[in-house]
Amino acid sequence: MNAIKKYLAEFIGTFVLVFFACGTACVVGCSAANGTGYLLTALAFGLVIVAMAYSIGNVSGCHINPAVSIAMLINGKLTVKDFIGYVAAQFIGAIAGAGALSLFVGVESGLGANALFNGNILLSLLIEVILTFVFVIAILGVTSKVENGAVAGIVIGLTLTLVHILGISFTGTSVNPARSFGPALLVGGDALINVWVFIVAPLIGGALAAIVYKFLASEK
Questions:
Q1: pLDDT tens digits, residue range 166-203?
Q2: Cα 71 to Cα 76: distance, rounded to the nearest angstrom
Q3: What's the CA gap between 93 and 76, in Å, rounded?
């Protein structure tokens, strides 16, 4: 597949993720006290993955997340060149998605930006590493067999919904550096100051998932 097409697919997928999923968080709210909005937000993130997996998955693999891409790089399923191209496309797509969303809900809505759990950097890092680890290891597992192709998108989407159901009340759930950076860049303030947490932690979680899965799947 032409590299430009793969990068464009990643741009589109990440744009859709931020516009629709972060947009849902802005429109319905994602407070744990508001159960309906909370679940709708979690479902929105999962449903976007399902939609994109079955539309651009055959083009780029539908990573739309640097944490997924770094796991694929570690497992030898992505070249260094494509890793750089994928991540660049994902970040640009997230920024564009946040920009488009801001036209409808305004920057003051927060654009679904993540926030530290009780202002605690270490706990925020820890929860994001755990959430990303679970999400990415599920991706690695379900995509490891060709026969899982028909259901992979659904499994991945439901797993993302799962980690959001738990994680929203802590950090808003990132598990995706690009998804966090786009809104934070436009919102600024504390969201931008602390966005490094939501870049570093998911990358660590994704890398750990790749290493652990490689060990578990090894025949040695």
A1: 999 999 999 999 999 999 999 999 999 999 999 999 99
A2: 9
A3: 24
Residues 5 and 1: their CA atoms lie apart, in Å, by: 7
Residues ≥6 apart with Cβ < 8 Å to 76: none
Tokens 């926030």 map to which residue?
A: 115
pTM attached to this predicted model: 0.95
211/71 Cα distance (integer angstroms): 8
Per-residue tokens: 108: 């003051």
| Element containing residue 135 per DSSP (H, E) | helix 121-142
Distance, in Å, from the CA atom of 170 to the CA atom of 118, rounded to the nearest integer, reads 8
Residue with tokens 């679970």: 134
**pLDDT digit string, tens, across residues 91-149:** 999 999 999 999 999 999 999 999 999 999 999 999 999 999 999 999 999 999 888 88
**Residues in contact with 186: Cβ distance below 8 Å, sequence separation at least 6, in sequence order:** 95, 98, 99, 102, 107, 111
* SS3 (DSSP) at 176: coil
Query: Would you say 134 and 175 are in contact if contact means Cβ atoms under 8 Å apart?
Result: no
Instruction: Give the Cα separation of 216 and 16 in Å (integer).
Output: 33
Residue 84's pLDDT band (boundaries 50, 70, 90)? very high
